[in-house]
């Protein structure tokens, strides 16, 4: 293998695929980035076995790609990233000179790095399963922001560490829950597809970080084993989570007896001011609501207490309810409207937060029992 390419083009591509590499992987080959030169294109691959990213650089006038000898090599990601960033020229020459020993050359700087046998790299099937669903990148970014945070961080129920995508009769329902809170988004799509898959929240956050940078479209392919997000010359592929996702619709109340309307940022700031007051390392807030005033409080035997009157509109009889301040703050941050609605059914019943003018997103939080 022997090729020449613009340094920044190669550095940017390496940086993208490195997002899928786990530098401390017990499998040495998965600590590397696979570089393959063939047919006037450079193909870079990184994977941790759960997430795989493939980036293709096609030869053009801007990237100065010139392949004089086809071939492939596997280089440890942390070394190859540093080397290419620090090469002292606009272009970098990469050449296998002896077995897996690879030379990276700039203007005067030369690095010789021991690569790994490319045949040790796992075979990753990047073939596209079927016709995709297509949406704007900004739309997928909103979906991830509005739901993925509510997925579980604990592996005790692996399926809850993911976000469920259920498409049926042109309605895409996206749900995430950790059993204590739930985020749900409903979207209408003109498509003949139907599926029910659960994507790891880690994979979705990686998609948002590495791919969703414009308002162009993104194609989403899936089958019963994998999901692929495709933009032009880049594929991010993720395994799916096994197991049936729980039926969550029954958790969402169908009717409400109390309604709180207020500014979303006012609620976030009011809770944020109390986050240092904790009980058992949790911020527990209490809302005391009536038509006369709405008060948010926080109290800890060890630290102290806070009390703040909110500028809010309450409808219903008086109600006191306690909840995790961080959960409600996360839910409010995931909404978009300046004004939001919080609807309650009782002191120890789940309550929901939603936008004032858009009910396609629902954030549900379970209350917390307190004794003070």
Describe the structure using short key phrases.
single chain; 372 residues; alpha+beta; nine-stranded antiparallel beta sheet; eight-stranded antiparallel beta sheet; 6 helices
Q: What would you say this structure looks like, in words?
A:
The protein has helices at residues 7-17, 77-86, 137-147, 201-210, 264-272, 325-334; strands at 2-6, 32-38, 41-47, 51-58, 66-69, 71-76, 91-98, 101-105, 110-114, 133-136, 162-168, 171-177, 181-188, 195-200, 217-222, 226-231, 234-239, 258-263, 284-289, 294-300, 304-310, 312-315, 319-324, 339-344, 351-355, 361-365. Helix 1 packs antiparallel against helix 2 and helix 5 packs antiparallel against helix 6 (325-334). The chain is elongated and about 80 Å long. A 9-stranded antiparallel sheet has the order 14-11-12-13-26-25-24-18-22. An 8-stranded antiparallel sheet has the order 6-2-3-4-17-16-15-10. It is of the alpha+beta class. The longest helix is centred in the first third of the chain and has 11 residues, at 7-17. The model has no long low-confidence stretch (mean pLDDT 94). The chain is built from 6 helices and 26 strands. The protein is 16% helix and 42% strand.
């Amino acid at each position: 293998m022997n090729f020449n390419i613009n340094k920044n083009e190669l550095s940017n591509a390496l940086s993208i695929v490195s997002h899928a590499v786990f530098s401390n992987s017990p499998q040495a080959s998965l600590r590397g980035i696979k570089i393959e030169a063939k047919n006037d294109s450079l193909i870079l691959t990184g994977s941790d076995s759960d997430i795989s990213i493939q980036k293709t650089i096609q030869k053009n006038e801007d990237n100065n790609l010139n392949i004089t000898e086809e071939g492939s090599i596997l280089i440890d990601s942390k070394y190859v990233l540093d080397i290419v960033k620090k090469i002292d020229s606009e272009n970098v020459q990469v050449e296998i000179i002896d077995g897996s020993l690879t030379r990276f050359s700039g203007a005067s700087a030369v690095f010789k790095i021991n690569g790994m046998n490319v045949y040790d790299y796992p075979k990753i099937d990047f073939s596209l399963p079927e016709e995709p669903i297509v949406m704007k990148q900004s739309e997928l970014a909103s979906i991830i922001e509005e739901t993925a945070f509510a997925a579980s961080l604990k592996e005790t129920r692996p399926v809850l560490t993911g976000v469920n995508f259920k498409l049926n009769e042109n309605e895409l329902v996206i749900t995430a829950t950790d059993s204590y809170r739930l985020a749900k988004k409903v979207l209408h799509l003109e498509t003949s597809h139907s599926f029910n898959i659960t994507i790891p929240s880690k994979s979705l956050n990686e998609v948002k970080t590495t791919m969703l940078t414009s308002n162009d479209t993104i194609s989403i392919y899936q089958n019963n084993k994998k999901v692929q997000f495709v933009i032009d010359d880049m594929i991010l592929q993720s395994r799916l989570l096994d197991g049936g996702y729980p039926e969550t619709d029954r958790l969402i109340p169908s009717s409400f007896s109390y309604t709180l309307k207020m500014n979303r940022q006012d609620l976030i700031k009011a809770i944020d001011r109390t986050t240092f007051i904790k009980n058992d390392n949790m911020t527990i807030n209490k809302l005391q609501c009536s038509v006369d005033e709405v008060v948010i409080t926080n109290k800890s035997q060890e630290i102290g207490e806070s009390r703040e009157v909110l500028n809010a509109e309450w409808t219903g009889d008086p109600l006191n309810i306690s909840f995790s301040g961080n959960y409600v703050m996360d839910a409010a941050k995931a909404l978009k409207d300046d004004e939001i609605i919080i609807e309650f059914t009782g002191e120890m019943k789940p309550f929901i937060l939603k936008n004032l003018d858009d009910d396609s997103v629902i954030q549900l939080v379970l209350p917390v029992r307190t004794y003070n």
